[in-house]
């Protein structure tokens, strides 16, 4: 769901929007951390590098932050819920995004010496950022990239690094961690690099703010009157008056049309359409069919390439995860010969990619249902899924036992997250079993049933 950047504005048609913050807690004990899954998109909406808001969270919470630009992972150490971070984000917007004069977010930050200036493109107001906040030190060390006009061609704008910046965008960049200087022009380091080639040299900032609201599913008007886009918004409201089944049919037809245009679906566009039709939870039922039906015999190998798209629906959304499992059931029965023997492998692939959580898989395995397929077919699928379910149950039991002994010393493993400096943290044996793909209890010398999920 898209939110107004200025939360004091209640106007439904307010064009300055940003996605709702999505946070996921990972790890345990000293290694616990909160990953902000869509910080890159939020940064682009605010026209600020995603590192600024992430560092702001760290300053306000007294926590360390990490940036992995290559994988677009922005991390705050410790356990923090999305609602708390969303509230802090509004504080960041008020201090570092909104114009103090007109309260519009059409502002640009510039760094000169030890001074951070903020200019508003809406009202022309120019001022300075309060230097007392700790974030200003980070901004001074990591200034936002400014665009300058090519003197030979005033209609073309290029970065300070000119051609070198564009070359770097084409070949990617090396991820850095907090304290390192982001590579100038890296699309991940400043949140503005995406779409530079498509802009054909036009002013990127003006185009972002001048275009219609992407988060409401409104198409670009390429410089024409805004009237067609306002009409599109009204059409969106009319669609919401239709039944859920009708809206799901509309979403399914949309997916088929997008699939014809390109084999890979645009995650942001798909999510926007699902939110526009208010079917985001159930959308994965149809996504499962569209993504995997054509190549059903190789379904598990297509899960990882579509991870980013599916996570936009299932991350911290138990309802969507249950609908996705229902979609898997329907697909398995539709292609019973090819998919039924592969059920444990398919479920493990979803689990390994964190698309479906352990608890949801176990709950699904414990409760037989006829919501998506017949009760007999449902039992047949669960019987085939028993190896992965048994493995998860044993891992959960081992994890519970290990948590009681954490204070006495758990299994020490190296923390492999980039930017952590090889710091170690005790984790339960069950969690290590998931990371290594080995059997819980393996190597203990006990005469338990050694079971490896990869040997199914």
Describe the structure.
- The relative contact order is 0.08.
- Mean pLDDT is 74; it is low at 148-236, 409-435 and 437-449.
- This protein has a domain at 255-456: Serine Threonine Protein Phosphatase 5, Tetratricopeptide repeat.
- By secondary structure, it is of the alpha+beta class.
- A hairpin with a 6-residue loop joins strand 3 (23-26) and strand 4.
- Helices cover 45% and strands 11% of the residues.
User: What do we call the CATH topology of the domain at 255-456?
Assistant: Serine Threonine Protein Phosphatase 5, Tetratricopeptide repeat
Q: Major sheet: order of its strands?
A: 3-4-6-5
* Through-space gap between termini: 40 Å
Regions with little confidence, pLDDT below 50 for 5+ residues: 148-236, 409-435, 437-449
Shape: globular
Give a short account of the largest sheet: 4 strands, antiparallel
Radius of gyration, in angstroms, nearest whole number: 24 Å
How much helix, percentage-wise, in residues? 40-55%
Number of strands: 13
CATH hierarchy, class of the domain at 255-456: Mainly Alpha
The helix/strand class is: alpha+beta
- Total number of helical segments? 19
**Mean pLDDT across every amino acid position:** 74
β-sheet strand percentage: 5-15%
Q: What is the CATH architecture term of the domain at 255-456?
A: Alpha Horseshoe
């Amino acid at each position: 769901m898209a939110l107004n950047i200025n939360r004091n504005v209640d106007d439904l048609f307010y064009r300055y929007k940003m996605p709702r913050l999505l946070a996921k807690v990972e790890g345990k004990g000293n290694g616990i951390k909160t990953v902000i899954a869509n910080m890159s998109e939020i940064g682009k909406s605010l026209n600020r590098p995603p590192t600024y808001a992430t560092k702001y969270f760290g300053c306000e919470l007294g926590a360390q932050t990490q940036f992995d630009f290559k994988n677009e992972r922005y991390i705050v150490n410790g356990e923090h819920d999305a609602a708390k971070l969303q509230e802090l984000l509004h504080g960041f917007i008020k201090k570092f995004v909104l114009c103090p004069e007109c309260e519009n977010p059409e502002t640009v930050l510039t760094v000169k010496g030890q001074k951070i200036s903020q200019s508003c493109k809406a009202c022309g107001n120019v001022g300075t950022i309060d230097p007392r906040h700790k974030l200003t030190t980070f901004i001074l060390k990591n200034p936002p990239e400014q665009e300058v006009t090519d003197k030979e061609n005033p209609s073309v704008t290029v970065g300070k690094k000119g051609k070198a910046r564009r070359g770097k965008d084409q070949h990617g960049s090396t991820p850095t961690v907090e304290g390192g200087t982001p590579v100038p022009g890296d699309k991940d380091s400043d949140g503005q690099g995406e779409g530079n080639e498509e802009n054909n040299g036009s002013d990127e900032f003006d185009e972002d703010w001048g275009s219609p609201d992407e988060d409401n599913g409104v198409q670009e008007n390429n410089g024409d009157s805004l009237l067609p886009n306002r009409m599109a918004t009204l059409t969106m409201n009319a669609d919401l008056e239709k039944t859920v089944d009708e809206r799901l049919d509309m979403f399914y037809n949309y997916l088929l049309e997008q699939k014809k245009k390109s084999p890979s679906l645009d995650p942001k566009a798909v999510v926007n359409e699902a939110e526009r039709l208010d079917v985001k939870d159930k959308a994965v039922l149809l996504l499962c069919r569209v993504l995997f039906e054509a190549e059903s015999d190789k379904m598990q190998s297509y899960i990882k390439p579509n991870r980013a798209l599916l996570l936009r629906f299932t991350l911290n959304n138990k309802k969507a995860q249950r609908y996705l499992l229902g979609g898997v059931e329907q697909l398995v029965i539709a292609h019973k010969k090819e998919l039924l023997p592969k059920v444990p492998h398919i479920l493990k692939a979803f689990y390994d990619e964190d698309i479906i959580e352990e608890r949801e898989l176990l709950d699904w395995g414990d409760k037989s249902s006829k919501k998506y397929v017949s009760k007999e077919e449902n039992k047949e699928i669960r019987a085939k899924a028993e190896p992965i379910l048994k493995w998860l149950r044993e891992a959960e039991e081992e994890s519970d036992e290990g948590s009681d002994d954490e204070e006495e010393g758990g299994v020490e493993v190296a923390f492999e997250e980039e930017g952590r400096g090889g710091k170690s943290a005790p984790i339960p044996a069950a969690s290590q079993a998931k990371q290594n793909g080995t059997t819980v209890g393996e190597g203990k010398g006990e005469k338990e049933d050694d079971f490896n999920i990869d040997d199914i």
